[in-house]
Amino acid sequence: MEASALAAAVARVASVCAPRSPSSWPTARGARAVRCNATTEQLAVPLCTPELGLGLGAEMFNSAEVVLWESGKSVNAIAAAQGIRVRRRCRPTHPSEGVGADRAVPRSVLEQIVWDKEVEVSQRKAAAPLHRVADSARRAPPPRDFAAALRAARARNAGAPALIAEIKKASPTRGLLRDTFNPVEIAQAYEKNGAACLSILTDEKHFLGSFENLETIRNSGVNCPLLCKDFIIDIWQIYYAWSKGADAILLIAAVLPDLDIKYMLRVCRSLGMTALVEVHEERELDRVLKIDGVELIGINNRSLGTFEVDTSNTNMLLQKRGDIIKKKNIMVVSESGLFTPDDVAYVQNAGVAAVLVGESLLTQEDPGRAIAGLFGKELLL
Ligand SMILES: O=C(O)c1ccccc1NCC(=O)[C@H](O)[C@H](O)COP(=O)(O)O
Q1: Which of 122, 138, 154 is where one domain is finished?
Q2: Which parts of the chain register pLDDT below 70?
Q3: pLDDT tens, 313-346?
Q4: Mutate to test the pocket of ligand 1, among 302, 347, 363 (most ligand atoms within 8 A of CB)
Q5: What interface predicted TM-score (ipTM) does this complex get?
Q6: Catalytic (active site) residue 191
Q7: Is 205 a residue of the active site?
C-alpha cells in the first residue's frame, strides 16, 4: 500500500470512529453490561482528539495492519490469528463470528477478568472521561524512570536481579494473602529492605486492590517507582494510572493483540511512562520481540490459562530467545512463583535483570524482612 493510500485509509478510520454513546445489552446472567467500542474508541482517541497533544497518527500503523483493519475482520478474529485465546466481549462483532451461547460464558478465569474489566472501564470512563483524566494527570508529579531504577539496583547488588516487590491483598489462585494489610506500611518496608520498584495491584474484583492504594503509596514519600498492576485493555486506563501516580504499567500479550501493544507503548512513551510487556509462551515472546520500542519484558512463570507455575519457563524462553533479547538490549523480569534464594539464583543464571515477587513476601509476617530471606542476603540500598 502506498503512503498516500495508507494516509487515506487512516483518515477513513478516523472519520468512522467518532466516539459513540454507550448502550446497554443483556448478559447471559441477566445483569446489564455496558457495550463499548474498545477498538474504534482506542483508535479514535489519538486520531480524533488532537487536543490531547499526543501526536500519534498514521505513521504508527503499518500497511498490513490497516489492511487487516479495513478487511472487516473482528478484533477477536485478529487476536485469535495471533494465538490469543482471550476474547473481548465489548469489541465490535463481525457477522461471521456468531453471537450467543459460546460468547456468553467465559472460557477461562483470565477471560472472565477481562470481561469484568471491560465493564469496569466503561463505567469508570462514563464517570471520568479521558480529557478530564488527562487534565488531572498533567497536574500529577511526572513519572519516574522504572527501568533505570532496576538497572541501578542490579548494579548496587553485584548483578543480583533487581526486585519488583508486589503489593496485593489477594489473588484468584491463592485467595486472601494476609489478614492485616496496610499497603503503605508494606511499601515502606519493601523500600527499606532494598526493593528497586513496587508493583501495586489495582484490580478490585479479583485481587482486592485499588487505585486508592496506588495513589496513597505514591503520596506517602516512597521513592521506588510504581508499576500499576492491572489488566490494561484501553488507553483510558494508562491515563488513569498516570493520574494516580503510576510510573509504569503492565501490558499482557495473552490479552492484547500486537496493534494494541504498539499503540499502548507509544502512549506510554509519550507520557514518560514505562511498559512491562508480559509473556508466558514462546509465541507471545516472538510477537513481542517483533515490536519496536519494548524495553522491559516480563516472563510470567504462571500460565494465565491453567495457573500452573513453573520457574523453568523463564529459563526455557531465555535459552530459546536470549540472543535476540540481548541484541535488542531488552531487560527481562522473571515473574511469579519465586520463593527461595535458589529460585532467584536459578532465574539470575538464566539471564534475568529483575524478579517480580508477591506471594512469598506477602505471606510472611514482615514482608520487608522477608526480602533478605528470599535473596539469601540483605539487598543494598
Ligand atoms: O496470581 C494469580 O492468581 C493471578 C491470576 C490471574 C491473573 C494473574 C494472576 N497473577 C498475576 C501475577 O502474575 C502475579 O501477581 C505476580 O507475577 C507475582 O506472582 P507471585 O510472586 O507468585 O505472587
Answers
A1: 138
A2: 1-71, 90-103
A3: 999 999 999 999 999 999 999 999 999 999 999 9
A4: 302
A5: 0.98
A6: no
A7: no
Which pLDDT score is estimated for 103? Answer: 56
Domain stop point among 138, 166, 194: 138
Give the range of the structural domain holding residue 211, as residue numbers without chain letter: 146-375
Closest CA to 190 of 381, 334, 346: 381
Q: Determine the distance separating the centroid of ligand 1 and the alpha carbon of 307, expressed in angstroms.
A: 9
Whether residue 213 sits in one domain with residue 88: no
Residue 140 CA, chain-centre distance (Å), reads: 21
- Are 204 and 134 within one domain? no
Length of the chain: 381
What is the predicted pLDDT for the residue at 66? 58
Which residues in 239-261 are b (16+ Cβ under 10 Å) and which e? Answer: bbbbbbbbbbbbbbbbbbbbbbb
Is the CB of residue 247 below 6 angstroms from any atom belonging to ligand 1? no
Residues 160 and 131 in one domain: no
| Domain-embedded: residue 323 | yes
Q: Catalytic: which of 111, 118, 120, 166?
A: 166
From atom 22 of ligand 1, which residue's Cα is the shortest distance away? 336
Torsion of CA 47, 120, 91, 242, to 10 degrees: 30
Cα 155–chain centre separation:
26
- 208 is written with which cell numbers? 482486592
In Å, the largest CA–CA distance within the chain is: 62
For the chain, how many structural domains are there in total?
A: 2
Pocket flag, ligand 1, residue 171 (CB < 6 Å)? yes
